[in-house]
């Protein structure tokens, strides 16, 4: 029970890595607030966690809206009275030719993948100070290496890494640790959308995504284990880290 008596907020928690992490945190004793724009899936995910005997609730949250993030933080405090872990996991991305990448899409990717991380940290920080809490941000393998037709996502996720490192240095004297998780290709709802954007069948896309040293894509549950490590005292001497969990993709 590595997160016993902790209260954790997980954004993008209705599906994929976010949901698997919320489930893992709850299994380790945390009370979990699942935040996502997908209301039906988010409510179902929270109900599934409660059915296992853990405490969990859902707050509909559009992370691109600072007011919605404020409501997420306020709702957590109103219901549970504290915040110990903030996991900024929500993100979007789409492969598109650079000439077809609009200013509006660029701004939307940055609003969800980078600005929301900044805003949520600003809002939660006074409460994380009270608990000497932990911040975990989701970056990506794409934050470490450039990818054709993925300029907005790569730039935003690279920003998450340096934002994490900068904030980690600033908050380290207070004992607040700030790290980020950098997944490679993971079997989530984002992969079929990526395949469609590239004009590939899902099977062809998966064969290409598996061309890495471990020879396969990851699972949300594998990333959730890494998230638990960074959120718990198992990583007590880590801050400012960008933990790559990608099957060896950037080592290839």
Instruction: Assign the CATH superfamily.
Output: NAD(P)-binding Rossmann-like Domain
Q: CATH class, please?
A: Alpha Beta
Task: Kindly give the count of domains.
Answer: 1
Task: Determine Rg (CA atoms, Å).
Answer: 17 Å
Main structural class? alpha/beta
Helical segment count: 8
How far apart are the termini?
36 Å
Assembly type of the shown chains? single chain
Query: Can you count the beta strands?
Result: 7
Q: What is the CATH architecture assignment?
A: 3-Layer(aba) Sandwich
Briefly, what is this?
This protein has 252 residues and is an alpha/beta fold. The chain is built from 8 helices and 7 strands. Strands 3-2-1-4-5-6-7 form a 7-stranded parallel beta sheet, sandwiched between helices.
Question: Could you walk me through the main structural features you see in this protein, from its secondary elements to its overall organization?
Answer:
By secondary structure, the chain is of the alpha/beta class. The chain has one domain (7-184, 219-245): Rossmann fold (3-Layer(aba) Sandwich). It is built from eight helices and seven strands, in the order E-H-E-H-E-H-E-H-E-H-E-H-H-H-E. The chain has helices at residues 16-27, 39-51, 66-80, 103-131, 151-171, 190-197, 202-209, 220-231, and strands at residues 7-11, 31-36, 56-60, 85-88, 134-138, 177-183, 242-245. Helix 2 (39-51) links the parallel strand 2 (31-36) and strand 3. It is globular. The N and C termini lie far apart (36 Å).
